[in-house]
Write a structure and sequence with these properties.
single chain, mainly alpha, two-stranded antiparallel ribbon, flat
Length: 305
């Protein structure tokens, strides 16, 4: 099947690709086997290290931490999207003071490390751990999303904007009805990627004693009664984070498919032109004009009225 990204491989290239895939797969299996051997040799699969996960209190601790992680992520995601939209509107504004103010805010919060902002809100402003974590994530991810929104709108072809203005639309109508709907489809993968970053950054909450998922795992891993089950905790927590990130990616794919099948974006079938179009005659009477598909013939001679 032809593609514009690369040439279709021939028989020799396909055999070479198959050989490379087999070699790479064998190396991955060897590496995985070596890692499993190390885990067994260091006693990471002993009953003492995995016993804590059988207790109801440990399970409730992990579930409570997971709930706090999802709570912080939901608040930060909604607020970051709203802040990004506001800052993007400011950067796209025709008013110079508003545009400069939005630019300074975006560049400042995007350049600041998110951990510094979290500690500043937590220590200097004496905020609660959840408030400090959500504020830091909102300011950082909102500034990044603002640039994503701005570049997405600017990526729409200039002719779309000019055509909308030619129809007499105001700037607000052009943004909401023409530019943003087209830009969202292009921005969606990048938006989801940034939300995945926000989800993973919620783990910074354990540094300010916020009882999120990683904080719960840290309490279990540092318990001497269970022989410091650090690796088992990682093997339990890591798949959960990976699963949540994959769920976000699936959600993005679902939204993209729904957008493609939306009546607003589906192609509308237009009826074919037919001969016999009625045109107004000189005396106001309709005349029939037949559609000519071949070249018109040039005839000489006097014209008859």
């Amino acid at each position: 099947m032809s593609t514009a990204l690369y040439d279709v491989p021939g028989p020799r290239a396909r055999r070479r690709h198959l050989l490379c895939a087999l070699v790479a797969g064998a190396l991955i299996l060897v590496l995985a086997g070596w890692i499993v051997h190390l885990l067994f040799s260091t006693g990471q699969f002993t009953a003492a290290k995995w016993t804590p996960f059988e207790y109801t209190g440990i399970q409730e601790l992990l579930l409570r931490g997971l709930g706090n992680t999802l709570k912080a992520f939901a608040l930060a995601a909604v607020l970051a999207l709203a802040l990004g939209a506001v800052l993007a509107c400011g950067r796209l504004s025709d008013h110079r003071p508003l545009r400069w103010t939005a630019t300074v805010l975006v560049e400042f919060f995007r350049a600041m490390p998110v951990l510094v902002m979290i500690f500043f809100v937590f220590v200097a402003l004496q905020a609660q751990p959840l408030t400090a974590l959500v504020t830091g994530l909102t300011l950082y991810n909102g500034s990044v999303l603002a640039e994503i929104f701005r570049t997405g709108v600017d990526s729409v072809e200039r002719g779309q904007r000019e055509a909308a203005y030619a129809l007499g639309m105001r700037k607000t109508q052009v943004m909401t009805h023409v530019l943003v709907p087209q830009a969202v489809r292009a921005m969606l993968p990048t938006i989801i990627s940034q939300l995945v970053v926000a989800l993973k950054d919620t783990s910074l909450g354990f540094l300010i004693t916020y009882e999120e998922f990683l904080h719960a795992g840290k309490l279990i891993a540092g318990n001497l009664d269970y022989d410091l089950p650090f690796i088992p905790v990682v093997m339990v927590i890591a798949p959960v984070y990976i699963g949540m990130c994959m769920l976000l990616s699936w959600l993005a794919s679902w939204v993209a498919r729904r957008e493609r099948h939306s009546p607003k974006t589906e192609a509308v079938e237009v009826a074919a032109a037919e001969p016999g179009t009625l045109l107004a005659g000189p005396a106001g009477h309709p005349q029939t004009q037949q559609t000519q598909l071949s070249e018109p013939s040039h005839r000489s001679g006097p014209k008859t009225s």
